[in-house]
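Backbone-to-sequence.
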């Protein structure tokens, strides 16, 4: 019974680490998305100004 509790403890720790890593990766993806969106809008504005 104690071995089973130890196995579940290890699984819980690993799941917590993976959850944290996935959460951080999601946050970085959101930041990168907004940076790319701002860059895309900026390039569209520059193209529109150059044509005018």
């Amino acid at each position: 019974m104690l071995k089973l509790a130890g196995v579940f403890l290890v699984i819980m720790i690993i799941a917590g680490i993976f959850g944290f890593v996935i959460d951080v990766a999601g946050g970085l993806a959101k930041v990168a998305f907004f940076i790319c969106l701002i860059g895309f809008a900026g390039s569209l504005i520059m193209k529109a100004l150059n044509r005018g």
